[in-house]
Amino acid sequence: MYAAEEVGDHLPHDTDPAGLPPAYARLLANFPPAERAAGPRLTAAAVRRFAPRRRTVTGGIWSSRTRF
User: Fold this and answer.
1) How far apart are CA 57 and CA 68, in angstroms?
2) Which of 7, 28, 52, 57 is 20 to 30 Å apart from 63, CA to CA?
């Protein structure tokens, strides 16, 4: 077993606080800019690494294709 950075706690995307209700904007302001910026990268890495791949049948042969 080993640690995986992409499955730790992080913000899944860096939302612009201007478009949020005030309470959510204040919550988001508690996170440092570097942590907010890293969230989308970590989310994308987790999806690539851990999301199940969609299986399709192509000409009678099973293949895995990831669509993101």
Assistant:
1) 19
2) 7
User: Cα–Cα distance between 13 and 40 in angstroms, integer?
Assistant: 5
And the tokens for 2?
């080993």
How far does CA 50 lie from the centroid of its chain? 11
Q: Is 35 helix (H, G, I), strand (E, B) or coil?
A: helix
Please report the pLDDT score of residue 22 as a whole number. Answer: 93
pLDDT tens, residue by residue, 14-30: 778 888 899 999 998 89
Structure tokens at 65: 């294709």
Backbone angles phi, psi at 9, to 5 degrees: -70, 130
The DSSP letter of residue 24 is H
Which of 27, 53, 31 has its CA nearest to residue 62?
53
